[in-house]
């Protein structure tokens, strides 16, 4: 860890706790900043705030008083999920106070070079794949960032012999200034989080921040299946290395069911440990990073063949009576569910879908639903999904929650069939997050096994 002096004796406001805010507060305190933490949760219900106060860090809880910003703060570090139209953030910006996220702090103190991964879908899987392949090749890949490990905490423990493999959300990337990865991957760009960003253009601009400080010595890995990526490739100082499943490119690509890197066959697509065309894209991005890092083909082959996926992202969860169960609770949009279905024979799939109603219909999902054995629908979006199922000619059942849906799906399945939880919707109508939703699926499967 670099003990930088950037924040010494500076008044810093950490807005919002959760894991990243708590980590940022402790790091800033360690670096000599005068830290105040502001979190909306009441103090008596806020163990993180209680712990920080015990360590001598000032905490203000139970609300966000605007007058707090009259205390001459020189910097705000905000939780990525807090939008920029939040009154506290707006007042900070109006006063000329820089507003950062904790990934900026991680960069400033990290001894380890950083590989940054962002995109609309596939971030978590690609980040995990890259870390595992690098580690298998003797270059310790350490997971950090949006994947659940606060970057500012992980960076404190990383050495110059490690590689910080950092998943980055658009929210995090809006709060950077100097952040500079040596390699970066953009898996794909689709219209998501528009309620936060306001427009697709602003969302893309936030993602594109990942490369803003990269130079001609750095590598930017882009998905050339998308024309948008080809256009963006003309607008960076970094060396662009493309990947594609549709054409031969000067990078990583799929040809005749074999994954190549610059003309060299690396492995057969069928040997990947996880199904689906989207996972071929994730593997190609991983191969690009691995080959640029000097990892051997044999190590890449063995790592990707043994890769078992990520919890809640097309996770193989086990089987009962010959029926296989896949937990894809992290599929919170239509594209993610389309990609999940692409890895299976629809005739054998009972799909569990539904969740928060965001007002969109599912017409574009209809072609991917055709041929399904059955659907089990739940949540606010069930009626909209019924219309899609009717268009696709698929019969369906309704369920009260994921546990009920899992049992009903199993009742409809026979040996060789697949029960797939891939909701195509956010979870917030019924569950705190997609992890809780996926955990209920796994717990119900455990009951079925018992």
TrEMBL record:
Gene3D superfamilies tied to this protein: Mur ligase, C-terminal domain, Mur-like, catalytic domain, NAD(P)-binding Rossmann-like Domain
Pathway entry: Cell wall biogenesis; peptidoglycan biosynthesis
Family matches, as Pfam families: Mur_ligase_C, Mur_ligase_M, MurD-like_N
Domain called Mur ligase central: residue spans: 117-290
Positions that bind ATP: 119-125
EC number: 6.3.2.9
Main location as per UniProt: cytoplasm
Location in or out of the cell: Cytoplasm
InterPro entries the UniProt entry points to: Mur-like_cat_sf, Mur_ligase_C, Mur_ligase_C_dom_sf, Mur_ligase_cen, MurD
Ligase among keywords: yes
SUPFAM superfamilies assigned to the protein according to its UniProt record, in alphabetical order: MurCD N-terminal domain (SSF51984), MurD-like peptide ligases, catalytic domain (SSF53623), MurD-like peptide ligases, peptide-binding domain (SSF53244)
GO molecular function: ligase activity
Catalytic activity, reaction form: UDP-N-acetyl-alpha-D-muramoyl-L-alanine + D-glutamate + ATP = UDP-N-acetyl-alpha-D-muramoyl-L-alanyl-D-glutamate + ADP + phosphate + H(+)
Keywords attached to this entry: ATP-binding, Cell cycle, Cell division, Cell shape, Cell wall biogenesis/degradation, Cytoplasm, Ligase, Nucleotide-binding, Peptidoglycan synthesis
Keyword Mitochondrion set for record: no
Mur ligase C-terminal domain ranges (all copies): 312-424
Superkingdom to which the source organism belongs: Bacteria
HAMAP family the UniProt entry points to: MurD (MF_00639)
Membership in a protein family: Belongs to the MurCDEF family.
Function statement: Cell wall formation. Catalyzes the addition of glutamate to the nucleotide precursor UDP-N-acetylmuramoyl-L-alanine (UMA).
Protein name, entry field: UDP-N-acetylmuramoylalanine--D-glutamate ligase
Species of origin: Streptococcus oricebi
Gene that produces this protein: murD
